[in-house]
Every structure is written in structure tokens, then in C-alpha cells.
Amino acid sequence: MTAAGPDETGRGRSPRVVDAIRDAVTGGEFAPNQRMVEAELSERYGVNRASVRDALLELASEGLVERIPNRGARVREVSLAEAVEITEVRMALEGLCAAKAAERATEEDRVALRGIAASMRDAVAAGDMFGYSDLNKRLHELVMTISGQATARTVLARLRGQNVRRQFRLAMHPGRPAVSLPEHLAIVDAVCAADPVAAEAAMRAHLRSVVDALPEVEKSHPRRFDAL
Length: 228
Prior knowledge:
Elements: H1 15-26, E1 35-36, H2 38-45, H3 49-61, E2 65-68, E3 72-75, H4 80-104, H5 107-126, H6 129-147, H7 150-162, H8 164-172, H9 176-192, H10 196-220
Antiparallel strand pairs: 1-3, 2-3
């Protein structure tokens, strides 16, 4: 990874350090409960320890890192119960975004949505689970962008960051793409039809399906998979 570089003053938080560590945590470079050693992070990102310390404080406020008294910081592990709660909050917010997207979508937006939907069909047909997982993320992000709901998007980015490992495991779960594909297609169809009621219902139904699947996925994957 490219070093984040020191901040101009040599003191305080460098936004690039926060972003770099956040990306490493949500990208699976650091496993749940892994210690975040300031000296090691300072060397890795080429910044002073004060910048790293401030970055970890910010990430703790986002729920990605937890600080343990007299033991420093570590990557926070999200429990199954919390993962369910996060997804239930997503149901409300992403349902809102889907409704707004149906009201605001331009013809260019509809073309982009249908293009992702077609690629998702191809990925499932080819058994390309990694490709499908990436398209899944792109579809949700596009719906949020089209919605123009900046506040919801900010909150959702934080929630998805906390739950990113389970989202990946769910997308990789055998048989899951065949279940979620028609759910995603229903979202696209409703947004493209400019039907906000149907769009919200389709998004909420999809995320309810995620809630229902989480316990099964939790049982079927060993804890070491969290390191991915």
C-alpha cells in the first residue's frame, strides 16, 4: 500500500491516514480483534504517532476500532446480533434511498442500473461470485447516489463499513446469489419504472432476506474467514 504521507504541520490528524487505515480495516487487511499498534502503523503509513493516534480515535467513533484501557486499540468485532441490527437500520435508510431514486432517476441512470443488472445476471450464470459481490456493492451505491440523499448515504457508509466482512461472506455463501439476484432485479425494475412505493418495498424485502440469512451464514463459516 502507498504510504499516506505526513501531514503538512507534522502534528495532528492527516485525513489520508484516517482514510488509509479505514480502507485497510474494511478491506480485510486487519482481522477482527487484531491489535492496531501505533508504532507499526506510523512506520507503515509514514506519519508520526500523533497522527496515527488521532486517526484511531476517529475510527473508534465510527465503530471500526475499539480502544482498550492500558492495551491500546484493536479492530472491533461485530457480533451477529449487532449485524442484524445494522441491516435492519439499512432496511429503513436504503428503502428511503430506493424510493428517492425512483423519483429522481434520469434516463442515463436507468441505463446504468439496467447495465449492472445485466452484468449481475451474467455473473450468476457464470458462477462468478466475486464479480457478483462487486456488482452487488455497485448497485447499492448507485441507488444511493441517484437518490441524492446525502445524509442517508453518510450514515450508510459507516454502517456498511462496520459490517463489510459479513456482507462479503453472505455474497460468497453457496446459493445466495441465486436468491438475491431476483431481489436486486426487482429493485432495478421498480426504480426504472419510477415507482417509489415498489422500489422501497423491493429494497426492504431484499434486506429482510439478508437479515434472515445472516444466522445461517454465521454458522457455516469459520471465524478465520473474517480475516479475508
